Amino acid sequence: MVSPAAERGRAVRERLLNAAAELIPERSWAAVSTRILAERAGVTPSVVHYHFPSLQSLLNEAATSRMRQLLAGLYELLETTRTPAEAIETMLASADEYTGADATSLLFVEAYLASTRDDDLRERIAGVVAEFRQRFGAWLERHGVPAPFETAAVLAASLDGVLLHRGLGLKANAPSAVLLRLVSASPEEERQCEQ
Amino acid sequence: MVSPAAERGRAVRERLLNAAAELIPERSWAAVSTRILAERAGVTPSVVHYHFPSLQSLLNEAATSRMRQLLAGLYELLETTRTPAEAIETMLASADEYTGADATSLLFVEAYLASTRDDDLRERIAGVVAEFRQRFGAWLERHGVPAPFETAAVLAASLDGVLLHRGLGLKANAPSAVLLRLVSASPEEERQCEQ
DNA sequence: TCCCTACTAGGGCGATCGCCCTGTACGACT
DNA sequence: AGTCGTACAGGGCGATCGCCCTAGTAGGGA
Predict the structure, then answer these.
(1) A17 in Cβ contact with A107 (< 8 Å)
(2) Domains of chain B
(3) Would you state the pLDDT for residue B4?
(4) What is the predicted pLDDT for the residue at A5?
(5) CA–CA separation, A149 and B123 (whole Å)
(6) Cα A110 vs. chain centroid, distance in angstroms?
(7) Can you say how many angstroms the Cα of residue A157 is from the centroid of all Cα atoms in its chain?
(8) I need a labelling partner for B93 at 20 to 30 A (CA). Which of A12, B9, B131, B176 fits?
């Protein structure tokens, strides 16, 4: 059994993590300060350093847990598909909900960038992304895609890249038609196997 | 004829831009301050606001001019190739010089991210990237690649995405073998046109 | 010679930053 | 009832921030 105070403390910790996951995309990683964070979570600034050793460690935990959560959901979605082509279309359809300037996309890119300057964060994120790549690669392998793990890596990277460019306001129209060629021998091209 | 003072001023302005292009990847976009910048350029902090209306505008100009310069060089490199497959291999070979955590890669990602919070910067960068996509797409069209502009967009985005992931320390081994399928009908696959 | 323009140096203002220190409220134990 | 430990509030410290203001310097045109 836990004391009510401990339970409240756990809830406050959770609120701080959620506030961080909101504020990182809103204001950029470096612009999330203890004051802003505490205000969003409805606590006083000193509470931040009570629950976390540093602001960095709070941001690291908030970002990685959100990323792990989202990639797990994406993989579950992919598992419901039956062919690699369907998987790519599903993946890109789910990506269509993101503008590249939305909270989720920005959280990923902010985290990628921050990880180049924080070894702990880099290892955490590398683990999360590697796990997704490995699971997706294994799925592609089971479905007969050649070079499955390399393809999974390129697809994951392309997805991030497409969202990155989409954030610029450049229209990235229907990349699925192009990316589908990664898993099938040019299905709807006019010239087929002339080589 | 220009006065020697004006010429010196122009040189100082150039040094400030170069210092900014160095410091953005080094310390992150938000961490480039007028003091640090001035120190790197060998001038006093107040000089920054003499040559530029604001720190933001300095960073915007530094980032976009570097990006334009680099993409122009990349396109020139692509123009020396003869087939789309060779172009992709050349592009990825040149990307192999980047670790994803190097100055150039980080400058791009930092600029992408900063552009989501600055309309002026977003328009500048969108113009630079759109120009590259357009020129590369026209090249692909001339070489018979289907959906050339979409393919160019996806390739450009994938390139950025691969570098983004590479910065995590995840090995992205030889993505060229995978991306080559974008421009040819699965050249070395075991099963060919069984569909 | 004098002025005028372009460039640079120095200092300062108000604001914000991460983090620390101290004091307090309060339920759980002996 | 008294003690203790956990969770939070408030204030402050030193540092850094972008930007502004003023004074000073140097070379070209009148």
Answers:
(1) no
(2) 4-194 (1.10.357.10)
(3) 73
(4) 73
(5) 36
(6) 10
(7) 11
(8) B131
Does residue B174 carry a pLDDT above 80? no
**A193–B185: do the CB atoms touch at under 8 Å?**
yes
Higher per-residue pLDDT: B159 or A5: B159
The rounded Cα B192 to chain-centroid distance in angstroms is 36
Contact B164 A160 (CB under 8 A): yes
Q: Region A50-70: what's the mean pLDDT?
A: 97
Indicate if CB(A33) is under 7 A from strand D: no
Q: Which chain B residues in 36-65 sit with Cβ < 7 A of strand D? A: 36, 45-46, 49, 54-56
What's the token pair of residue A128? 């999360």
- What is d(CA A32, CA B181) in angstroms, rounded to the nearest whole number? 42
Nearest nucleotide, CA B53 to C1': D19
pLDDT at B60 over 80: yes
Q: Nearest protein residue to D21's C1' (by CA)? A: B46
Does residue B183 have a pLDDT over 90? no
